[in-house]
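Annotated sample (chain length 120).
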Amino acid sequence: MAGVLLMTVSMIVVPAIYWVHRERRQTERRQIAIVEVENLMERTVALPFDEVRQSTVDKFALSESAVRQLPDASLQIKISNADDVKQMKKIQIQLDWKNQQGIREMPVNLTSWVCLKEQK
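Output written by the structure step:
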């Protein structure tokens, strides 16, 4: 009877432990992606307005740490002019990666706008 009870408990506990581990790993990867996208956005908006262009951000890459921890990571940075306001640029950053099953995770997206500062 004790063996049956032990086996039943282990059949419940082992998958639960695996699920918790998998969820924790996914959360860690998402946090890494968020920090990476935030850092890239900071780096982009810190550029002088004239240097905020596609050819400049195309040279940006993920950190070695992010590349190691986010399997098959895909980074996209897009710079476009704001349609409704002159002297304003829209920056969109998207980062996605594959999970343990090889399926793309929901991407981390961040959008910001920069504008030309008035000269005094």
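Annotation: Helices lie at 2-45, 54-57, 64-69.
Annotation: The radius of gyration is 22 Å.
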